[in-house]
Amino acid sequence: MKSRLLAVLVGLGVLMTTTPLSAHHSTTMYNMANPSTVTGTVKRFEWTNPHAYIYLEVKGDDGKMVEWEVEMMSLNHLKSYGWSRDTVKEGDVITCTGGAAKSGAPAMLSSLIKLNDGRMIKS
């Protein structure tokens, strides 16, 4: 009886810790099957864990400026692609390609960025 109870408790403990971890890495909120591209001016670049973010000012279809939140990979991935905290800076004009938010919010998970100097870099 004690071993059965212990097995159930261990199983529940594993489920409780792995479910949040897998949810963190979900991309279901982004339309990765149909990539979108936005071009804008860097307003802010957050070189933070677990993911880096770029905030872009993008001219909307109505001509008004819209702030886009561009999520990127972890810092370890970005460093392996050649990124550093100085790769982009406020005022740079860049183009981001990736999965836009399915909700219609001005947000995306970026997979490729064209930098101000014309270089293409994974993100």
Walkthrough of the structure:
With 123 residues, the chain is of the alpha+beta class. The chain has 2 helices and 6 strands; from the N terminus they run αβββαβββ. It has one domain: Beta Barrel (OB fold (Dihydrolipoamide Acetyltransferase, E2P)). Strand 4 and strand 5 form a beta hairpin. The protein is globular, with a radius of gyration of 19 Å.
Provide the descriptors you would attach to this structure in a database record.
123 residues; alpha+beta; OB fold (Dihydrolipoamide Acetyltransferase, E2P); five-stranded mixed barrel; 2 helices; 24% helix; globular
Q: Which helices and strands occur, and which strands form pairs?
A:
Elements: H1 2-24, E1 30-46, E2 53-59, E3 65-71, H2 75-81, E4 93-101, E5 107-114, E6 120-122
Parallel strand pairs: 3-5
Antiparallel strand pairs: 1-2, 1-4, 2-3, 4-5, 5-6
- Report Rg: 19 Å
Write out the strand line-up for the largest beta sheet, numbering strands in chain order: 1-2-3-5-4
Structural class: alpha+beta
CATH superfamily membership, which one? Nucleic acid-binding proteins
Could you give the distance between the termini? 52 Å
**β-sheet strand percentage:** 35-45%
The CATH architecture can be named as Beta Barrel
Number of strands: 6
